[in-house]
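Re: the 344-residue chain
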Amino acid sequence: MTVAGFDIGGTKIAGVALAAPSAGADRHTLADVLVRSHRPHSIHGPESLVDAVAANVRELGEQLAADGHPPISAVGLALAAWMTRDRETVIWAAHLGVRNAPVKAMLEQRLGLPIVLDNDADGYLLGEDAMGAAADASTSILIALGTGVGGAYVADGRPLIGANGLGAELGHVTIDEEGPRCSCEAYGCLEAFAGGNALAREAAGVPAAVALARGAAGVAAAVALAKEAAAASAPAAPATDVAPRAEHLAAAARAGDAAAIGVMEGAGRAVAAGLRRLLPAFDPEVVVLGGTVMLSCADLLLPVIERELAEHAPLQGVPQPRRLVLAQLGGHAAAIGAAVLAAR
């Protein structure tokens, strides 16, 4: 049996085709991944979503046929979306323009194949649970720093869904009620401190990051400009059409800019504060840290997270072995997780 899995984010679709586990094996491994794909998309609306999935399934099927593999028999989707508990209706996928749409039924009618849906964070951790950073653990949680902060909890290969389909939204754990407003419209969520959008917001007030976004001639030059401005008590750099992002902030921090280092340390402390709340609640064997921001800034964030947890450990009177592990499967983790769901 060959199954397909797709991770549909705001701008791209990552896909994999997965063979049945090898004879005698009780779980999939990376050797079972037959083909991969990665394509941009311009999805907006449920019909557009169905068209894009159908095109990607067809393309993956053609690759499989060319290599002599069996056709696709089921499809799993990991969507950047909130959905109902039965995983049949997408309640809201902001980046895809899909609201209250029966996506499972629409796709099954179009493709004539069984379809399973889950959100992208669940797919991400299911992939890491199947054949990545959490493959040797029975319980794990995920904190994924991307544009926002995703989260998931998996026990014995099954994600926590919750009463309303919104279980393990760990990025929306409150760490400071007086903190910034989050995308969910609450205040002080982990996402509001450590997501890519939050870091971009803070980067706008870091002159070295602003200079890098404007195309300053090298990181050292940008940091030097920032130090000169600070020494002269000059005001912060004015807003620019080229807004700085987390990557500019990280580059400035690596070059020694104090303001950038302070922002990155604040993000690391926020992740640790979230984990202090989550570790006693879930008691996972493994904490998987992933997402584009986390993985590209691990050298800046991970030491802070580990230090903060060591200094301010939850349940201090109870031994709690703790494993913080970086995600291993890269940009196809959620697609692999979606395929594993489809195989079940």
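The mean pLDDT is 90.
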